[in-house]
Amino acid sequence: MRIIKLFKNHVLALVTAVALIIISCNADLALPTYMSEIVDVGIQQGGIESPAPDTIRAESLSDLELFMPEDDMATVEAAYSEPDAEGIRTYVGSEADRAEDGAVSDAISLPETVVLSLEQGVDASTVADGMTGTLDMQTVRGACEAGIIPKEKLVEAASAMSDSMGSMGGSIVKQRAVSYVQQEYEAQGISLTDVQNSYLASMSLKMFGLCAVSLVATILTGAVASHTACTIARDLRRQTFDRVMHFSPAEIGKFSQASLITRCTNDIQQIQMATTLFIRMVLMAPIMGVVAVMRVLATHTGLEWAIGVAVIAVCAVVGVLMGLTMPKFKKMQKFVDRVNLVAREMLDGVMPIRAFGRQDHELERFDDASRDLMDTQLFTNRAMSFMMPLMMLVMNCVTVLIVWAGSHGVNDGVMQVGDMMAFISYTMQIVMAFMILTMVSVMLPRAEVAAERVEEVLSTQSSIKEPKRPQLPAADAPRGELAFKNVSFQYPDAREDVISGVSFTVHAGQTLGVIGSTGCGKSTLVQLIPRLYDVTGGKVTLDGIDVRDLPLSELRRRVGYVPQQGMLFSGTVESNLKFAGESVTDDAMREAAAIAQATGFIEEREGGFGSEISQGGGNVSGGQRQRLSIARALAKRPEVVVFDDSFSALDYKTDARLREELARTQKEAAIVVVAQRIATIMHADQIVVLDDGQVVGQGTHEELLRSCAAYLEIAQSQLSAKELGLTQEEISAVMEGGSR
Ligand SMILES: Nc1ncnc2c1ncn2[C@@H]1O[C@H](COP(=O)(O)OP(=O)(O)OP(=O)(O)O)[C@@H](O)[C@H]1O
């Protein structure tokens, strides 16, 4: 499972969590045992834990010893101190010997029962045939001391009495022994209320201690789980974002921006929740179940079958609910993706939506996506709302079953009320553990889908790869020399080349203009320079080296790219202009702003270069955004500057001044300008005319006017024949001849 793989680097945290869970489960599950002790010992036995009293009068112990075989007598004698001045003997044996089934307990219980009966008077005929009258302890003691009744006879009589009690013997002996101890304490002047209260106080203290241990362990488990889950989510977000940052537009297009955002946010959130659940629930439930089963088996109540019934009932309920909801859970993530996609598209296009009055239509589209998500969520939530009541029903039925079966055990004297209560608690814990496991198993597949989607991003390699054997231009190689050599390119999913057979060379200080009708491949052509895409045929070289052999960082440092859509980042003007990094000095920034004709409006803004830029450059005009984008590319002083239709939002005057400044200052850089306006590129040293991805003309403005029909057509659409310096005959000749 992918979720488990995420814990690869968090083994220590997992081990710590398991240790803490074991501690808290043991503490939690010890509580029902204590509760049972409080009922059985604290309440029913008045706080008297063992038939072996803490203190006993010497004569009382002698009476008891009359009914003990020699070895039992030795055991008991060894367990009590010598009588003190008041004739009181104190228990000095081990606690194990005093506990249920301990040596001292076993040895002393039956004699206590016999002595208690004798002290109340016993019909002599029930002891020996032919005897009449009432036997009491004093008589028996006297007869034994006088040698009338041998001690062996008394031991035999006690044992016969035990046998006659049959299966009820154990619990009757225990109850009577406790009564004997109570009587003995009273005779010593010890308050029975004090004994009971001190027992209850000590049990409460122990239970409180266990609660505290469980509380601390549970809090620590929660802290470990949250920390681990947050760390896993943070690392995943970082890795996913890092991977996306290295994606070329092809991979971004493959996933879609909306899906990448959902994967980086919602999907990782799901994973985070699942990892927390995994530690807190999935690890806890089996541990809780195992500890509870161990304790249940130790109770020997004979009601273990009730647990089997409960588990089968829980599995049946959860199985039905899971069967109904699981397919819907799997669909849910796709619906979230769609809502995000529609929402993003609507927010991006809020202006045209308003301009075309399509709000209602878009709202309907959003409602459709949202309704699908809502319907699925409603179905799953409704189905899951049956879970809790059904579980409670199962639990309550099982409780009734245990009480019904247990009451027979209590009636027969083979079970104590407290034991039955403890058994109910353990059964509930086991059922809970199963319930938690099954509920989590509903949630985990959803997180599994999310993990799969995140892994898909992480395992996708960018089609733009670092060179295996990176090369740098030789020290004496010309700087700022860009060449296309028979370049062709096809988009990943397309069938035909978007551009083909393009060749040109631009040197430092020169300008290359690229012009052509819309969709002819101009942007695609220049995107090959900074390797936003890789050529599919031919090669692009910079300073004599194939751009695919230059380290990517080196290539991107050498190429300044101004995209068609000026895009700014939230921050200040300065942070945007210094986007290339520390290497951009204040002087370089100001010089770039001046070339881009941006200084004027920057200084007019409050705060100048420190003035705020909002997300996406929303608080500057389209032309200002373009100028800041141009300044940003120039500030890093690249060897090649690519302007992808970046002057389109500038007025003619600013456009002209900017080009003048570029020509004056960029003597060591090659400039590539994609334009729709003839005026923008007419002064270029070389112009490439594209038509449907093919070069249909190449040369200077003057040359193309006289040789390239496509170029002339564009020029004519923007300038008059007079402005072009052509006669009507010359125009006709070019048009008739087509491009030569
Ligand atoms: N990511 C893409 N996947 C597939 N085809 C694409 C992709 N981007 C652009 N195209 C197609 O490639 C062709 C050239 O697109 P390109 O953006 O390079 O044209 P352009 O000359 O810059 O257009 P414009 O002047 O309108 O900006 C177009 O037909 C376009 O539909």
UniProtKB/TrEMBL annotation:
Major site of localization recorded for this protein: membrane
Protein name per the record: ABC transporter ATP-binding protein
GO molecular function per UniProt: ATP binding
Membrane-topology descriptor: Multi-pass membrane protein
Subcellular location: Cell membrane
InterPro entries noted in UniProt: AAA+_ATPase, ABC1_TM_dom, ABC1_TM_sf, ABC_transporter-like_ATP-bd, ABC_transporter-like_CS, P-loop_NTPase, Type_1_exporter
ABC transmembrane type-1 domain segment(s): 192-446
Pfam family, one: ABC_tran
Positions of the ABC transporter domain: 482-717
Keywords, in A-Z order: ATP-binding, Membrane, Nucleotide-binding, Transmembrane, Transmembrane helix
TM annotation in the entry: 207-233, 277-297, 303-324, 386-406, 426-444
Superkingdom: Bacteria
